Structure formats: C-alpha cells, structure tokens
Amino acid sequence: MVKNLLLLLSIMIIIISYTKIILIYLTTKNKRIENLTGFDLAKEITSNYDEINIVESKEITISKYNLKRRVIRLTPKNYQSNDIFTLSLSACLSGYSLANINKDKYLKMLSNILPNIDYLNKSSILVILISLFTNTIKDAKIGILILGLILIYQYFLIQINTASHQYTKDSLKKIISKKELLEIEKILNSFLSIHKNSFIITLILILREVFMILNI
Predict the structure, then answer these.
(1) Quick one: pLDDT band at residue 119, thresholds 50, 70, 90?
(2) Which helix (H) or strand (E) holds 211?
(3) Cα separations in angstroms, 33 against 39, 92, 176, 177
(4) Which of 31, 41, 25, 24 is nearest to 80 (CA)?
(5) Residues 46, 163: Cα–Cα separation, whole Å
C-alpha cells in the first residue's frame, strides 16, 4: 500500500511539474519582445566570448547546448522567434555556455558523460519507468543503485542550472527591460523547479525500493 502511494505521489509531482511548463508556454507564446529573436538574445548574452558559437540546426527537435564544441544549437523556430518562452529557452542555453566558459565544476564533470544539455529535465520520466519495472527484492536492489546514480546526475543539474541562471540574469539586466526580465526569470525558475522536483521524485522512489526490500 505504502509503495503504491509513493509511486502515485511521484507521478502526481511529475504531472504537475510538466503541466506548469505547458501552461507557462501557452500564456507566454504570444508575448513578444520586438526586434529580439532567440538568436539575437543568445548572441547578446554571450557577446564577450568569441569562442561560443550559435547555430541554427534543422536536424534537431529540441534546442540544446553542445558541451564539447561549446555550440548553442537552436531549432529554426527558436532561432527566429521572439516570444517570451523562446527567449527564455535561449537565455537558459546561453547560461550553460557561460557556466562552461567559467569552468563550472559540475558542468565539466557532466561533459565527460554527455555531449549535450538542454533546458528540460526528462530524468523523472526515466525514474518512474525504472520504479514501475522493479517488482522483486532483487529488482529493488538494482533499482536503488540505478536511481542513486540518476540522483547524482539530477543534483549536478540543479547546481548547473542555479549557476547558469545567475549568469544569465546578470547579462539580461543590460539587454532587456525590468518587466521583460521578470517574465523571463519566472520561466527560468520554472525550468529549475523541474530539476528540483525530479530530484525529490527520485528520493521518493528510492524510499519505495527500500520499502520493497523490507517488504513493507
């Protein structure tokens, strides 16, 4: 019973988290900043660093930052659009690039494992699936190990996003108005919230695995 409640709680948290992002997207997609596209904003934020490149990539479905090549890769829509959500996404990726330039230790460690990083944390979906497929004590022991590794990864993401968002906000103050900055900060904080919620979900599901081992 307890195990099922913990799983249900985790699923509810992830649904609420992603619903919040969808609602923010729907309410900001028609709010625009004139004469400032996703490309323009990324260029402005990273203007002090010649080694950071920003490219339009037609072959990708979600914009991302390439950790190895230090390239911000934007989808055609994100490259050309000027709505608040797109600009927030571009600002988020630019923050990763600034964190990388400033030798963020968590981003450096992550770059040894992953080639890219994007704004949306999808690890919570993975931990839900892992938990769903652990039905025995043996499975639970393996599940704890895997979830523990994912927990470390999620902790890295929280630290990376906290630092990169601060870099971004400091740069944005010089580029856009205070009102526009507050709009983008709200969306950046919602991205960070998903990372924190994903960490909480993993902790809950690790506890679920422990209960499974203890047969509670």
Answers:
(1) confident
(2) helix 178-213
(3) 13, 17, 9, 10
(4) 41
(5) 15
Residue 46's identity, in one-letter code, is T
Structure tokens at 157: 């993401």
- Which tokens is 71 given? 């390239």
Q: What type of residue sits at position 181?
A: L
pLDDT in tens, 163-204: 999 999 989 988 999 999 999 999 999 999 999 999 999 999
Tokens representing residue 79 in the block: 């490259």
| Token pair of 39 as six digits | 């490309």
Q: Could you give the 3-state DSSP secondary structure of residue 156?
A: helix
Radius of gyration of the chain (CA): 19
Burial string for 20-47 (b: 16+ CB within 10 Å, else e) reads ebeebbeebeeeebeebbbbbbbebbbe
* Alpha-carbon dihedral 130, 93, 107, 99, rounded to 10 degrees: -160
What integer is the mean pLDDT of 123-134? 90
- The string of pLDDT tens digits covering residues 53-110 is 899 999 899 999 999 888 999 999 999 999 999 999 999 999 999 999 889 999 999 9
Helical (H) or strand (E) element with 109: helix 105-111
Distance in angstroms (rounded) separating the CA atoms of residues 101 and 129? 35
135: Cα separation from own chain's centroid: 30
* 8 Å CB contact between 21 and 189: no
